[in-house]
Amino acid sequence: MSRNKVEAYQTMYNTMLFWVNHYLGRLDDEQLRQRVRPGGNHGVWILGHLIASDDDFSLYLGRGPILFPDYQKQFRQSAPAESLEAYPDLALLKQQWQAVCDKNAAIYRELTDAELDQPHAMLKGPIEEDYFKTKEGVLLNWIMHQQYHVGQLGLLAAATKS
Fold first, then answer.
1. pLDDT of residue 104
2. pLDDT band at 49 (very low <50, low <70, confident <90, very high)
3. 111 alpha-carbon distance from chain centroid
4. How many C-alpha atoms does 111 have within 13 Å on its Cβ side?
C-alpha cells in the first residue's frame, strides 16, 4: 500500500511536534503559567488543550479511544483559561502530552494513502456539510491547529526572554 502522502503529512506533523516540544522544553513552569496576552490563554491551558485536541485525533481517524476523556471539557476550544489551580500539575500534563504524541505516531505509522479520501470516523451528517469531511482533512486541520498554538508558545518564549 502506498504511503507517500501519509509520510508527507507525518513529516509536517513531526515538524510541528518538534516546535511544540522545543518550546515546552525551553519554557520553565513559571513561564508556562504566563498568559500570551492579558485575558488570553496561558501556557498551561495551551498544553492541556493540545492534549485534548490531539487525543481525539484517534476518534476522527477511527483508531481507538481517547486517553484523557476528562480533558475534553476542561480544555476544549470554547473553554476559557481558568485560574492555574484548576489544572493538573505541569509535570503530569507533559507526561500526558508525550503519551498522546506516542499514540498519534502509531496512528501515522498504520495509516495508508488509500484511507485519506475516506470520510472521517466522526462524520454525523452529509459529508458536504462536515468541516473536516475526510481523514485527509482531519490531518491537515490538526497540523494547522498545532501551528496556531506553537505560535502562542513562541510568543510566551519571546515575552519571557531574559
1. 97
2. very high
3. 18
4. 29
- The 10 Å Cβ neighbour count of residue 87 is 20
Set out the domains of the chain in order of their start, with CATH numbers. 4-159 (1.20.120.450)
Among residues 61, 31, 42, 68, the alpha carbon closest in space to that of 149 is found at 42
Tell me the percentage of the chain whose pLDDT exceeds 70: 99
Tens of pLDDT, residue by residue over 2-22, are 989 999 999 999 999 999 999
Supply the DSSP symbol for 61. Answer: T
What are 53's three cell numbers? 485536541
133-155 per-position pLDDT tens digit: 999 999 999 999 999 999 999 99
- In degrees, to the nearest 5, what angle opens at C-alpha 152 toward C-alphas 150 and 157? 95
DSSP calls for 117-147: TSBPTT--S-GGG-SS-BHHHHHHHHHHHHH
Q: What is the DSSP letter of 132?
A: S
Helix (H, G, I), strand (E, B) or coil at 41: coil
Q: What angle do CA 62, 55, 160 make, to 5 degrees?
A: 150
Joined grid coordinates for residue 134: 475526510
* Residues comprising the chain, all counted: 162
Distance CA 76, CA 52 (A): 7
Angle at which helix 135-159 crosses helix 4-26, to 10 degrees, equals: 20
